[in-house]
Design goal:
The structure holds 2 protein chains of 2 kinds.
Chain A lengths: L1 H6 L4 H18 L4 H25 L6 E3 L4 E3 L1 H23 L10 H17 L4 H19 L6 H32 L7 H6 L3 H22 L7 H8 L2 H27 L4 H26 L4 H20 L4 H32 L10 H4 L1 H15 L5 H15 L3 H26 L14 H19 L2 H9 L6
Antiparallel strand pairs in A: 1-2
Helix pairs in contact in A: 2-3, 2-5, 3-4, 4-5, 4-11, 4-14, 5-6, 5-11, 6-7, 6-11, 7-9, 7-10, 9-11, 9-12, 10-13, 11-13, 11-14, 12-13, 12-18, 13-14, 13-17, 13-18, 14-16, 14-17, 14-19, 14-20, 16-18, 16-19, 17-18, 17-19
Chain B lengths: L3 H21 L3 H27 L3 H31 L13
Classes of the chains: A mainly alpha, B mainly alpha.
Chain lengths: 487, 101
């Protein structure tokens, strides 16, 4: 009992988040004056997350510590991943406080549920047995379903929620079926025991394990939206309110990536048939994910949907970093995650204000943005260039890291495919830049949402995108120190 | 009398039934029921493996969590289906086509 309580001291960030969640629920009950109460609620939520971020930042580099009878593991990798996710949630909170895409009489529900998803993501990134993985994925999913269907009176939003529930339920079921067979074959659900047991398997058991693992992967693949489990993603992204879409493209995706890294290293670190088969499968999936994401993005009229497909492509890129199965790859993914966060937030911020103004997000709505709001248009262009992976922006360094990890482990064909995809993605990003900066605006009326503060925030988000592209050593050092711990 | 294979067989049949229901039926409620079948198939596997193979409690704890989570998921799922029905006045999956371009 005492040991459990002492374990709690490693679990402070999550506890802070839970406390914030409860505080918000209480505030809901005493919600007084509408606009004033609303600001107060947002400030409380942001302070809570800022505290959680500070605690996480303090504990980077501590000794890895398994807690709660080995159910969770607190290592530097999970801490850095949680920091990225908390930052993403903070960005989403600000966007939500500005956006009018969510219905007006919104109280604290969005914040409470977002923090809930964040806690699920934290659980996933430090999961140390299969039960925790399952619970983390379900915590992430069940609240996400509600978030997707958030605009109660909107048919598209509820359809998005419906599609998310159905896909989510099916994949969770298939994943559980896979986990049950993994448990049967290996006789344990603890990650710390699995690598040793896998070495001792005979060939027949190994043959059984691979299909079971593929079923297990369905659940994770659905969370990171890799092909062939990506079908829900564009529809859900398009139907959900913009703050929710922003959130979906950051937190659940990174959480899924974190758990995929850990699971891959636990199961396939041992050379053999299993590893060869898995790496081969992952190569095909990563290549397909990039191609499908990028090629489908080209034809999209809605910018939100285009960003959804581009985020599928980015997931494919991050998967490339996983299948090299070494520390370079993990470092590259953490770096990619951190830079991806800022680029995506910036792109969605601008899109959100456009949607609030015009009600749609077609490409034409961005026409001549540079003459109306030059700073915003330039920041958006920076984000899009960075997403495409052009130097000197941070997206280039992120992609370069992944490519160097691929070449280091002699996966030349996949590296080639990744570069090819960068070129394809350049087309649709640059098309939007052209619409914004070259085409003439049909009217010069400004966008009300983009006041001074919001412009400053958007430019402020653009700064790390540039700075991380030039002074990347600092972040690299952090990512390099974030070692994953597997017994 | 009944060995491991029997239980795994039942689990497999439930799994396949669930998948078939989800592919063949067009009613959203039926699809949600199909999901429950899959989850139950997995739960039976866990208990069977725990009794015949590992002899530990992990395999008993897991189904308990599955039951709880399945209940939460069904609650959220049905709530969304009700909302969908109120807006669209149908629970036919083929009617959910507003989000395709």
């Amino acid at each position: 009992m005492l040991k459990l309580l002492s374990n709690m001291s490693f679990y402070v960030p999550e506890l802070v988040c839970i406390l914030t969640m409860c505080t918000l629920l209480f505030m809901e009950a005493f919600y007084g004056d509408k606009s004033k109460g609303r600001t107060f609620v947002y400030i409380t939520a942001m302070i809570g997350l800022a505290i959680a971020f500070a605690v996480l930042a303090c504990s980077v580099g501590n000794k890895p510590q398994p807690i709660f009878y080995n159910a969770l593991i607190i290592d530097s990798f999970s801490t850095v991943m949680k920091m990225i996710m908390v930052l993403g949630t903070l960005g989403v909170f600000y966007l939500c406080s500005q956006s009018t895409d969510i219905y007006e009489d919104l109280k604290t529900e969005f914040l409470v549920m977002t923090i809930g998803v964040l806690i699920g993501g934290m659980l996933l990134s430090s999961a140390n047995n299969l039960l925790t993985v399952y619970l983390g994925i379900e915590t992430l999913s069940i609240l996400s379903y509600v978030l997707a269907a958030f605009k109660k009176r909107d048919g598209r939003s509820s359809e998005a929620g419906l599609k998310y529930v159905l896909y989510g339920g099916i994949t969770a079921g298939v994943m559980l079926y896979g986990i049950s067979h993994i448990y049967g074959i290996l006789g344990t659900i603890q990650f710390s025991e699995i690598p040793g047991l896998i070495k001792a398997l005979d060939s027949q058991q190994t043959l059984l394990l691979l299909p079971a693992f593929v079923l297990f992967f369905v659940g994770i693949g659905y969370k990171i939206a890799c092909v062939p489990f990506h079908m829900w993603s564009p529809d859900v992204y398009e139907g959900s309110p913009v703050p929710v879409t922003t959130f979906f493209s950051i937190v659940p995706k990174l959480a899924g990536m974190a758990v995929l890294i850990r699971v891959t290293l636990v199961f396939f670190n041992h050379d053999g048939v299993l590893q060869t088969a898995w790496v081969g499968l992952m190569q095909v999936l990563a290549a397909l994910t990039m191609f499908v994401g990028n090629i489908t993005a080209i034809n999209q009229k809605s910018v939100k949907r285009m960003l959804a497909f581009s985020s599928i492509a980015h997931a494919g890129f991050m998967m490339c970093g996983i299948l090299v199965l070494n520390a370079t790859g993990i470092r590259a993914i953490l770096f990619y995650g951190a830079t991806y966060l800022f680029m995506t937030l910036l792109a969605f911020y601008v899109t959100s204000f456009i949607i609030d103004k015009y009600g749609t997000d077609d490409h034409e709505r961005f026409t001549g943005l540079i003459s109306k709001h030059p700073l915003v248009a330039i920041s958006m262009s920076v984000a899009l260039f960075s997403l495409a992976g052009l130097p000197p922006f941070s997206g280039f360094i992120a992609k370069f890291n992944i490519l160097s990890a691929l070449i280091e482990s002699e996966k030349y064909s996949l590296a080639l495919i990744a570069v090819l995809n960068s070129v394809i993605s350049l087309y649709y990003y640059l098309r939007l830049v052209k619409t914004m900066c070259v085409n003439e605006a049909d009217s010069s009326e400004p966008i009300e949402g983009l006041g001074f503060v919001n412009q400053a925030v958007i430019v402020g988000l653009g700064i790390p995108v540039i700075l991380l592209g030039v002074f990347w050593e600092k972040l690299m050092l952090v990512a390099d120190g974030a070692k994953i711990f597997i017994q | 009398m009944f060995g491991l294979a029997w239980y795994l067989g039942i689990g497999f049949v439930l799994f396949c039934t669930g998948i078939t229901v989800m592919i063949a039926r067009k009613s959203i409620v039926a699809i949600l029921i199909g999901i429950e079948l899959i989850l139950n198939g997995a739960a039976i596997n866990f208990v069977a493996y725990s009794k015949f193979v590992t002899q530990d409690l992990d395999g008993h704890i897991f189904p308990l969590f599955i039951i709880i989570v399945a209940a939460a998921e069904a609650a959220v799922g049905l709530a969304i289906v009700i909302r969908f029905y109120q807006i669209r006045e149908t629970i036919h999956i083929d009617e959910a086509t507003q989000l395709q371009s």
